[in-house]
Design brief:
alpha/beta, Rossmann fold, 4 domains, 336 residues, 5-stranded parallel β-sheet, elongated
Length: 336
Amino acid sequence: MSLWVIRILFLLLCISGGYAVTQVEPTLIDNGFLGIVIGFGLGGLLIAIDEMLKGFSLRAFSAATFGLLLGSLIAWMVDRSGLFVYVDDQSSRWLIRLCLFIAFGYIGMVLAMRSNKEDFSLIIPYVRFASQTKPENLLVLDTSVVIDGRVAELLESGFLEGTVVVPRFVLQELHSIADSPDPIRRARGRRGLETLARIQRNGHNEVKIHEGDFPDESTVDAKLLRLSHALGAKLFTNDFNLGKIAELQSIRYVNINQLASALKPVILPGESISLRIVREGKDKGQGIGYLNDGTMVVVNQAQSLVGKQIDVQIQSLLQTGAGVIVFADVKNSVSS
């Protein structure tokens, strides 16, 4: 609403200016009503142009200006090359030069507006438009890690510092998953969208939606690798294969599953822990409990203690493909 107030005030100012011209310089416009009409028309035209350019950002304007200058430079070089020296008619030569500048200017503007931030590094390879006050730390999130949700807890706890970058093509993939007819996929997609909303509300980290895309790449994984490499960002994923490909391409990455595994508490035989028995074990007399990280603990002679909190002593650990299984014995008396 405030924007329209400014526009109305600007329109009134143009109308007043048009009328003032008829009073100060009657030789230019000798009719007050005509001055008002001209002022209203000029103001209305500028407001209409402003409305048409409402989706035109400062980045797009700067890119268009750079493209126009580059196209004009190329047109000037072609014109100065002597290619048209044999055109005798000055009016024809002027028309050729006009078309040349318009054509190259238009092509330069279109190419610059279609380019991403990283494309300009090809033209100015040793210039980085980055803040000098602190190093830029970019964290690119892929679809799997957003759906997983644990990255939101890492950000909220201050464990991760930097700017969170969510590519537009990842948002599109999440949206398509959330609209899937499969209820399981739909639930996963909605969980991912809720995770992004939670990250934006957190306030500890700045969140940016990156508009860049790579139409020549057919898969989201390939686009993520290209984007992370171009931005010099760290890729966060749960995809083991994607992480290995990133490693081969010298792209920094963090696998949340590997991070969680590395942060699991170390349990050694002989230690005592407090554990709640939640169900019976597979073998006779066994009870099953779980540590906070989900590690399963098989307790001997605890079948009758289901639902109770007890102290157990670790006897041995068994490494399996799914993780570690801990075997323990009941240590002390039962505590309800």
